[in-house]
Amino acid sequence: MMLKVNAHTRICGIIGDPVEHSLSPEMHNAAFHARGLNYVYVAFRVPASRLGAAVAAIRHLDLVGVNVTIPHKETVLAHLDEVSEEARLTGAVNTVVRRDDRLIGYNTDGEGFLQALRAAGFVPAGRSALLLGAGGAARAVAVALARAGAASIAVANRTPARAERLAAWLADRLGVAARAVPWPGRDGARAGREALERADLVVHATPLGTYPDTSTGPDLAYECLRPGQLVFDLVYNPPETAFLARARAAGAGAVSGLEMLIHQGALAFELWTDQSPPLDTMRAALREALL
Ligand code: NAP
After folding, report:
1. Structural domains in the chain (count)
2. Is residue 95 part of a domain?
3. Ligand 1 shell residues, CB under 6 Å
4. Is there a domain that residue 3 lies in?
5. N or C: fewer beta carbons within 10 Å in the chain?
6. Residue 186 sits in which domain range?
């Protein structure tokens, strides 16, 4: 793909440390090209000590905006003029938009997750969910599910205290029926296995199964999965994980983290360009980058 960069080119990017592994440049540059936009998207490695200066540069260099990744998703909030409701609730920003001199922070992870769910035909209102993991991604997903009217959210995590904290926070702040459950492993406690069996939606939100350790998915009582459930793996590399393959084999529906990555990127694209995102182009660019 030829990108024509000239004196009119508008600049977007991603700030993080590390950022070399990011697939967002491929996805967004393909999208800009498909829409005939004179935009370019680049990766900026920004160590924690330079976050303030890097955010100031968005204003000074007239950038359109940036995505924000590890380790800045939480700390960037203090440097912004305004944050969206989702970003405030999750305590994390993954997209910054410059509007004149103001920097506005959004979190498109949760809404990207919901769009991927809806595209798979799953409506979260009134349904039960089990989250496997209690980190930043699990929190963004939980907030999105609660706001979309999920009936209940169970949280299981390697470190149980973190699952308890997240569940208590969800119940207290968002009024959703949330509880911590034991990890539903092969030899796990019955309460965890029951939560796995009963959930309409099971979301895996740990890095287990990510390239290069692709053979080691989470330790789960896979025999509890069943037809009628939807299983969502936030891991996107590889797009088809061992976890998803086992869920499919048990008759459950399965959605790849690649779909969430596409939809969170699509929402950022819309915020930066006011144009509809070319989803198929973005998906193809990511798949090619992952080959
Ligand atoms: P995080 O905040 O660091 O949380 C990591 C979570 O994984 C914690 O619950 C942690 O449990 C658990 N964990 C880590 N290593 C584990 C292990 N060896 N065994 C069991 N549990 C383990 O990370 P995050 O930002 O939430 O990201 C989680 C995953 O989601 C990553 O793979 C990330 O790439 C993916 N993600 C995907 C998208 C997408 O668009 N598809 C978006 C965001 C994130 P403890 O609390 O016990 O440490």
Report:
1. 2
2. yes
3. 109, 133-138, 157-159, 162, 205-208, 210, 234-236, 257, 260-261, 264
4. no
5. C
6. 110-255
* Whole-number Å distance between alpha carbons of 112 and 27: 15
For residue 94 the two structure tokens come to 């993954």
Determine the distance separating the centroid of ligand 1 and the alpha carbon of 226, expressed in angstroms: 24
- Which CA distances in Å does 74 have to 21, 70, 123? 20, 9, 29
Are 125 and 98 contained in the same domain? no
Query: Residue 1 burial by CB count (10 A; 0-12/13-18/19+): exposed, middle or buried?
Result: exposed
Which atom of ligand 1 lies closest to the CA of 264?
A: 40
Q: Domain containing 26 — which CATH number?
A: 3.40.50.10860
Which residue's CA is the closest to the ligand 1 atom numbered 20? Answer: 158
User: Which residue is listed with tokens 């406690």?
Assistant: 189
Are 53 and 169 contained in the same domain?
A: no
Please tell me the distance between residue 133's alpha carbon and the centre of ligand 1 in angstroms. 6
Beta strand residue intervals within the chain, DSSP E: 10-16, 39-45, 65-68, 82-83, 95-99, 102-106, 128-132, 152-156, 177-180, 201-204, 230-233, 253-255
The one catalytic residue in 73, 139, 204, 263 is: 73
Of all residues in the chain, what percent are helix, strand and coil, respectively (each to 5)? 40, 20, 40
Same domain, 251 and 115: yes
Mean pLDDT by 10 residues, the chain (291 residues): 84 97 96 97 98 97 97 98 96 96 96 97 98 96 97 98 98 97 93 96 97 92 96 96 96 97 98 98 96 80
For residues 131 and 248, membership in a common domain is answered with yes
| Domain match, 123 and 81 both | no
